[in-house]
Amino acid sequence: MKTFITLAWRNIWRNKRRSFISIASVLFAVLFAISADSLEQGSYELMIDNMVKFSTGYIQVQDVMYDEEPGIDNLLYYDEALQEVLNRFEGSISYIVPRIQSFALAATDTKTRGTLVTGIDPEQENQFNRLSENVIRGAYLTDKDTAVLLAEGLAGILSLDVGDTLVVIGQGFQGATAAGMYPVKGIVKLSVPELNNNTVYMPLATAQWFYAAPDRLSALIIMPENPKHTRRITARLNEALDSEWYSALSWEYLLQDLLKMMQMDRAGSQVIIYILYIVIGFGLFGTILTMMLERIREFAMLISIGMKRYQLAVVCLLESFFMSFIGVIIGMMVTFPFVYYFNKNPIPLKGEMAELLIDYGFEPVMPTSIAPSIFITQAIVVFIIALLIGLYPAYKAFKLNVINHTK
Amino acid sequence: MAVIKTLDLEKIYNSTHVPVKALNKVNLEIEKGEFTAIVGPSGSGKTTLLNIVGGLDKPTAGKVFIDDEEINTMKDNKLINFRLRNIGFVFQSYNLIPVLTAKENVSFIMLLQKKSKKEMDRRAEELLREVGMADKFDVRPNKLSGGQQQRVAVARALASRPKFILADEPTANLDTASAFNLLDIMARLNREEHITLIFSTHDQRVIERARRVITLVDGAISKDEQFNQ
Prior knowledge:
Chain A is of the alpha+beta class and 407 residues long. In chain A, 55% of the residues lie in helices and 20% in strands. The mean pLDDT of chain A is 88. In chain B, helix 3 runs parallel beside helix 5 (146-159) and helix 5 runs parallel beside helix 6. The chains are: A alpha+beta (407), B alpha/beta (229).
């Protein structure tokens, strides 16, 4: 085997230009494939990161029925027993954000509007999504307040401003009537238009009183110390919680619609990457074919003098292996600095695309992902393509008609 | 006992419209230690005969025996193995492996035979000395002249200790001095070590050295002459 390896290695360098072209083909395939995938994954990661950090959190503990019927009657009971369970996760959990939310009618003397009334722990909520930074008029809430924070769009629709009074009417827990009058303490601008037009924030205790649901929550958002441990913590929480009443859901479950959309979007972009693979594959095949034609007489001679066809095929495969390996390694080395740079300095987006992202509450940037899986997957795919192309000379070695080429 | 024996050997190439009979009932016996030249005009069937006797091609009809073993019915892998252990080849275009040195080229055959490194080194050096290439062990083919490459090819052909060597026009690409040098070496090997040599050739210099000359015309043996030299 050592001689076959030597033979293959030296064969690569006997025609340096040809080998450099082959290696460069693999290198550029790796460069393009990783860059394309990394950009796409980077955008998805940013999107998920935004959603997780500002909306769902990494884990939510909910009433077991809430996921199926997310209404005011399926609120979880946040008692000492539940707190005790969560205390056991000290060290794994960074902080907890409690929320209670349901729909209600918001009214002034002349206007009425359906709204999402969300009860928050002002301090915890601010730690979670920096809500106070979005207050454009008035002040942010404290937990002692009996006032509300109105989303900018809704305030406009209802013609309300700081200091005005809002009437809220809805259905409380288990059929109770929910009604109250609250002064507007501040106006907050939310990025997502839908939320900006219908959100009312109240301190948690005020909202629980409003909904007649003391100690009850829609969800407890749990932020782990290390987001990479989300799945494990979710599983452990589900083991520790009383499954008759509670369930812990990870962001992957909570954002499954978004993930599905990303998968569909990814399927489209995969087609482009496949086309890239095909183009690169044909380029590589061209050089391999030339190499094959150059050396066909040598192959015939080797078989004539007693080299078995499979041994010749092994040498051919080793040559492809070496060239592919070199191309993939150099490709990864060349690509990493680029990808790393754009991960730390995301490409800023401009124009309509940027506005669209801002509207949805996302940063108008396109970062790359430096997830090792991208490098490994793309490198393996290109490597396999190159090896498959390398099978052609090996196949020819098996099929070669010796007498036509030995003279 | 004959090293090579053919019985009613026929080879027909099926060209698109007209079948071409390259060999026609060739019956031939070559004894151990013979130095045989197969001669004839172009298209007379010399190379075809050598290819079939060397197990590179199959006859359309007839049989080929090497040391009483019929080779034309062997499967491809067995035949490759048989060639490796029994037949040495010298080609018109030398056909050395360009990326290996002279010594590695000679050793390569023994490597395929799974000989030990020590034995490969010893025999490769011994053979290269025999063909006058003692100072070129580590030189690659592209740094050797045509004559030197062909001498390395002869050493390679001998490396497996074959029963005979088939040489298809081995002097065709050599200048006179190189051709004489090569023929001297091969004649000496034949004389002193009783290596059986079968050449296909047009070259009068080869014919003059051979002790047996078989003339092929239109695929059939027209003359078979023995000479005492």
